[in-house]
From TrEMBL, chains A, B:
<comment type="similarity">
    <text>Belongs to the sulfatase family.</text>
</comment>
<dbReference type="GO" id="GO:0046872">
    <property type="term" value="F:metal ion binding"/>
</dbReference>
<dbReference type="InterPro" id="IPR024607">
    <property type="entry name" value="Sulfatase_CS"/>
</dbReference>
<protein>
    <submittedName>
        <fullName>N-acetylgalactosamine-6-sulfatase-like</fullName>
    </submittedName>
</protein>
<keyword id="KW-0106">Calcium</keyword>
<dbReference type="GO" id="GO:0004065">
    <property type="term" value="F:arylsulfatase activity"/>
</dbReference>
<feature type="domain" description="Sulfatase N-terminal">
    <location>
        <begin position="2"/>
        <end position="304"/>
    </location>
</feature>
<keyword id="KW-0479">Metal-binding</keyword>
<dbReference type="Pfam" id="PF14707">
    <property type="entry name" value="Sulfatase_C"/>
</dbReference>
<dbReference type="InterPro" id="IPR017850">
    <property type="entry name" value="Alkaline_phosphatase_core_sf"/>
</dbReference>
<dbReference type="InterPro" id="IPR050738">
    <property type="entry name" value="Sulfatase"/>
</dbReference>
<keyword id="KW-0378">Hydrolase</keyword>
<dbReference type="InterPro" id="IPR000917">
    <property type="entry name" value="Sulfatase_N"/>
</dbReference>
<dbReference type="Pfam" id="PF00884">
    <property type="entry name" value="Sulfatase"/>
</dbReference>
Amino acid sequence: GEPGRETPHLDQMAREGLLVPSMYASAPLCSPARAALLTGRLPVRNGFYSDNDPGRNAYTPQEIVGGIADWELLLPELLKQKNYTSAIIGKWHLGHQDQYLPLKHGFDYFFGSTNCHFGPYDDVKKPNIPVFRNEKMVGRYYEEFSIADNESNFTRLLTEEAVAFIKDQEGKEDPFFLYWTPDSTHAKTYSSAAYRGTSGRGSYGSAVQELDAGAGAILQQLRDSGLENDTLVVFTSDNGAALVSKFDGGSNGPLLCGKQTTFEGGMRVPGIVWWPGTIEPNTVTQQVISQMDFLPTFLQLAGIELPQDRLFDGIALGQSLLNTDLHIARPVFLYRGDILMAVRRGPYKMHLWTWNAPQSELDDGIDFCPGQRQENITTSFQFDHRDSPLLYDIVADPAERYLISENSEEYKDIVPKLQQIVGDHESDMVKGSPELNWCDTAVMHWAPPGCDELGKCLDVPESNPYRCVWDH
Amino acid sequence: GEPGRETPHLDQMAREGLLVPSMYASAPLCSPARAALLTGRLPVRNGFYSDNDPGRNAYTPQEIVGGIADWELLLPELLKQKNYTSAIIGKWHLGHQDQYLPLKHGFDYFFGSTNCHFGPYDDVKKPNIPVFRNEKMVGRYYEEFSIADNESNFTRLLTEEAVAFIKDQEGKEDPFFLYWTPDSTHAKTYSSAAYRGTSGRGSYGSAVQELDAGAGAILQQLRDSGLENDTLVVFTSDNGAALVSKFDGGSNGPLLCGKQTTFEGGMRVPGIVWWPGTIEPNTVTQQVISQMDFLPTFLQLAGIELPQDRLFDGIALGQSLLNTDLHIARPVFLYRGDILMAVRRGPYKMHLWTWNAPQSELDDGIDFCPGQRQENITTSFQFDHRDSPLLYDIVADPAERYLISENSEEYKDIVPKLQQIVGDHESDMVKGSPELNWCDTAVMHWAPPGCDELGKCLDVPESNPYRCVWDH
């Protein structure tokens, strides 16, 4: 978004690799998008949703009772068939109770946090979020891992950890999977002292610059370790920019609205694929890609069969990635919670429902579409367009500004085809048990594993489960 | 705007040169912006405006009686002091009657058109626009220079002409100034057969791709001629994307509204400066630059004194261009016609007036801010904010989405300073005689110089001057 060329390393990565302008997040919010990325399945299937109210975006705050279900197979679990060593370095966000932690779900190594770095908290109403190394906490944000005045070394630490992990893989026979997931560009944004005040975009810009430098350091370590021709690297984001965070939230460029919505600003995300020697430098693909495609695609490239006991929403796109002229017609279904809001396929996007934020939130200044009001579209309620879906040519009109008229031949030709695709999708849908319905202050990380060794255990309050409230 | 990397040559130019994210056109419409670029003076000073109605954007259609005044000194006239040979290859647009043609105003060579390529016309109500070589027409658009089904060789011709002109300069002692101004990205957009269907953005994308290839060919000829270290090249545009033209109009990325408005989408334009060996590759400047700065800056770099007998709105920025850490505080005044709508200075932009299009035009689907409705800002009438100007931090908020509150300390500190700057500007303002008030079908190019040799003279109708109508 910042027109000041503040991401030299990612720009370089794009020049050396493949740019994917049509990359879609699996959900317009963090946790469900990440759960879908690692399972290859929509949140509504893998349980990362709530049905307390229809169409709400839910995630995993400290109070969440649920997490990623045992039954779900995560990418690192599947990669074990070819002896991959897997590490997550950064934010996990798929449940923080013991049974949900990364090492229970296929990861061999974990350094980072279970939840977002929100805070600081007071240890009475809420404890600060712990940072884990493997199965034990090593401290907490704002305590052992300081974040003060938007300054923190944490992205630098995550970069050093990632670089060290790659260095460790040198000369090993087994392959590896590294899932690097910094959370510094999330309000409240933070960066190291070296990046303070270096950007015209304030604290957000600094966080992006340090993230960019981290990506650059990881690619450089791959080169230094002689692994660059044997490693596929993907850069992306779990949702569009959080316009509600104003200057702390980035920009979606021309795209409509932002995070939390199923407009392009919420779900169209950066996509860079890098694999020297295999992927041609300076290429672009118009292939529509969902982040749920990573799992089937990575398995395909690793020579691992996709499990046959469940439906996957992602499809294997190895052929298309390696041949940018080949466009596989794959629909992408865009949900808020358990409601199918829209579908993208080929050059078209069809909205069945549209929604910004409820009026109560708009009154509080919570607006996911600031300055982008469109009649009957960016409304304060879920607007039902199912009888006359909205149709856009999203290639010619990525900003969703020019509705294709219901009276046009194009509309009459395309909408029934997309409705057929939606019908097929819905007839196959078996919803997972909603993991994000229940909250309880007792499940917060008062006393995570390892707290005793650090003398950092807090008293756990009495359990009192309640329905989580998701406003949007 | 197209996220598909469709401008490889301009991207390369930016990598080899200096990116200017804060480049401003001199007006939100073509003719006045071009008149200001070549004079270094605001349209309201050089006469390229109308006062038939306040705040209307006027330009030079076929019916226009006026043109660039004799008294104005154009860049090529001033460069004559150092024996520059000057060529304009492309669209002129500063008046088409004999006295206004390029060779009357300092250019030594002209190939291109006097007006836009709108048409085809019927030779009864309107003739097609002629193409000139120097002082004589060599044919007309849609006739000798075909444009059919968005296909035309014209951009290729302009590129060949520019390349040939540079080649001609090889080994000459005198320096040269080339003003290359294709008009193919203007609706109705056109490109050569080789570029048909090559872009995801349709005909507009194809036109941009061919424009990009043209820029690449020009830079390559400079290299081939061994002139690359001795030539300063600037790439820019005369206004923001014409959102009213929908898919034929491009995208302004995150910027608010488009061409015809003084929001960023109307006036913030591409800026790339290229001068190998002098300007560092891969650099960015946060210097705020107006296109009116080119004239004083070019003169400064050529060692020519700025005339002292008139006020210039541009200032010499050579020092800042060559030292990107040096930011010269220069205000940019944004006008619609004769009304000062806004001022940009440093990180701030202050709106005194805002306006989209009149209701009558909105009713006709003419909307310069599609999908971007903001209360009391993107209105159908000129909204007077002079008592409480709107203030934006345009560095942090280039999309003009987040008003700085009137109650904030920042507002109370900055607005009086900007009002002082506006007061100084207005106290020095001597408006030029408005050249764009009068229209007359008799002045259309029925019988341009050279028509007799081609047997293409048309009957000139009776003169019947009338006030031009400018709706927006």
